[in-house]
Specification:
alpha/beta; six-stranded parallel β-sheet; four-stranded antiparallel β-sheet; binds 5'-O-[(L-methionyl)-sulphamoyl]adenosine
Length: 534
């Protein structure tokens, strides 16, 4: 059985999760569930990045102990993923003892291999990005731009990783596609950044006197590990790399390399595309053992700027300081989990940005789920109950309209699979909707409620209803990675839960056997209604 190892970025639990974090987890969850449906053995790893200066700063601002803050906020992330049906197999918390031990083993071995050295540094440091700055980081006005936040001058000794030694190799790996970055257009961003990597090494420690919240250096206890060096290692430590005897972590050799590290565009360069592959290489991973990066865009906030000359909507970043953060927990309370999951992956092309828009969320849910799919299921089951006593008959009747339904399902399924294999989730959903629309038109053109008035049309009516119910069963299976609980409800109403195949390979026409008894329709996607004054 092929394996599929998928991870997401681990979130900083220094605040509450917003829809950007939620999008990434739902995206990864849909892919994981889809791969399972393809018959792969899937391991989905996600978690939280609990160390670093940001965590410490927030704890200081809130007057709480940093470990308490990390634990408290980690619970919020866990509760949200549970609520949104994000079904992971491995949970990474970087304060976990197994992870600490793994990071320390890696540091010791890199030290022994001559990949680390200590030197003094004097210069500028961005507190927000937790990064040392060089002259090249200044903008055209010679200043460190707003993206760096507060910049301080400091002088300190630190440990460095010989990143520059791996820059030529990395360039070749990216150009040859052996180290893959998806979507394709993100590759040039990485290539531009590699030139710089050849010029500088990576500072991987922080003096404890300035930052104590991190993993201690095993051979120099005055230092803790730089948060990114620590965090990136989660992808292997929680997959069982260098695990202690008797540990219940997974078998590393069966998972690695990761088939998809799902990350946002902001952490592609330098962390995931420069530091990470070079770290892996220095640890002794071969060219064939490099992971694949799947880079998604950002959910921004749509707002109309009254003071702007520009017409229309303006997008701005979501941030705590702007106070425009959309809370996925509240959204799910208000509109339901299905609406949130559907919207987050339906209205953003993987790799690109999109602007969050509540009205769009409602429109898409009401149009594609409540009106199109919900209606189709409701009508199909209702008519089967009323006209056939709920019992599906294979009447032998066939005509162009019926074969049109089979062809539509087959081409929608093909389009769905090809979009999913390209990580194009919106197109996959559009492909399913095309079949739903086809079926609804099929009802309009071949109305069973009219045809049944003529007894001679009984076989035709039976064939129409079979085509509709069979379509609903296929749609539920294909939709299940996106809307697992709604898919289950649909299959339950069709009384097809037990016969629905667990893999796409076995999803063949004729799922519902002759004499199959369907159940009662009950709205799966109740329309979202807003009060007049909202
Ligand atoms: N802790 C680091 C990642 C370490 S991975 C070894 C981090 N954390 S984060 O909380 O700031 O971001 C976590 C993920 O959420 C990142 O992939 C980031 O791109 C994603 N998002 C944060 N805001 C986002 C949006 N507004 N939209 C979509 N994704 C966004 O970076």
């Amino acid at each position: 059985m092929p394996k599929f190892f998928i991870t997401t970025a681990i979130d900083y639990p220094n605040g509450i999760p917003h829809i950007g974090h939620a999008y990434e987890k739902v995206l990864a969850d849909v892919i994981a569930r889809y791969r399972r449906l393809c018959g792969d053995e899937v391991f989905f790893l996600t978690g939280v990045d609990q160390h670093g200066q940001k965590m410490l700063q927030t704890a200081e601002q809130e007057g709480v102990n940093v470990a308490t803050l990390a634990r408290r906020n980690t619970r919020k992330f866990l509760a949200l993923w549970e609520k949104l049906g994000v079904n992971f197999d491995g949970w990474a918390e970087t304060t976990d003892q197994d992870h600490k031990v793994c990071v320390q083993k890696i540091l010791t071995s890199l030290h022994q291999e001559g990949q680390l050295y200590k030197k003094a540094y004097k210069g500028f440091y961005s507190v927000r990005q937790e990064q040392y700055l060089t002259e090249k980081d200044r903008n055209e006005n010679g200043e460190f731009g707003a993206e760096w936040g507060k910049v301080i001058e400091l002088e300190e000794e630190n440990w460095y990783f010989k990143l520059s030694e791996h820059a030529d190799w990395l360039g070749k790996m990216v150009r040859s596609g052996k180290f893959a970055v998806l979507p394709e257009f993100r590759r040039s961003e990485v290539l531009n950044a590699i030139d710089r990597a050849g010029e500088t090494d990576l500072c991987i420690s922080r003096p404890k006197e300035r930052l104590h919240w991190g993993i201690e250096f095993p051979f120099d206890p005055d230092f803790v590990t730089y948060v990114w060096f620590d965090a990136l290692i989660n992808y292997i430590s929680f997959a069982g790399y260098l695990k202690e005897p008797g540990s219940d972590l997974p078998e590393f050799s069966q998972l690695w390399p990761a088939n998809a590290h799902v990350i946002g565009k902001d952490i592609l360069v330098p962390a995931h595309s420069i530091y990470w592959p070079c770290m892996l290489r220095a640890m002794g991973f071969s060219d064939e053992e490099m992971p694949t990066l799947l880079v998604h865009g950002w959910w921004n906030i749509k707002r109309t700027d009254e003071n702007s000359d520009q017409e229309g909507d303006i997008e701005e970043k979501m941030s705590k300081s702007l106070g425009n953060v959309v809370d996925p927990d509240q959204l799910a309370e208000r509109f339901g989990v299905d609406a949130v999951r559907y919207y987050l992956v339906r209205d953003i092309v993987t790799g690109k940005d999109s602007a969050f828009d509540m009205a769009r969320l409602i429109t898409l849910f009401n149009a594609e789920l409540a009106n199109d799919l919900g209606n189709l299921l409701n009508r199909s089951l209702n008519m089967t109950k009323r006209f056939l006593g709920g019992e599906l008959v294979i009447s032998g009747y066939d005509d162009e309209a019926c074969s049109g339904v089979r062809e539509s399902l087959s081409s929608s399924t093909d389009a769905f699979l090809s979009a999913m294999n390209n990580y194009d989730l919106p197109d996959a959903l559009k492909a399913l909707n095309a079949h739903v629309v086809h079926c609804n038109q099929f009802i309009e053109r071949n109305p069973p409620f009219e045809l049944r008035k003529d007894e001679a049309q009984a076989d035709r009516v039976a064939a129409i209803l079979f085509h509709l119910c069979e379509s609903c069963a296929h749609l539920a299976v294909l939709l299940s990675p996106f809307l697992p609980s709604a898919a289950e409800k649909i299959l339950h109403q069709l009384r097809a839960k037990e016969i629905a195949p667990s893999t796409i390979d076995s999803l063949q026409w004729g799922l519902l056997p002759p004499g199959h008894l369907t159940g009662k329709p009950k709205p799966v996607f109740p329309r979202i209604l807003l009060d007049e004054d909202e």
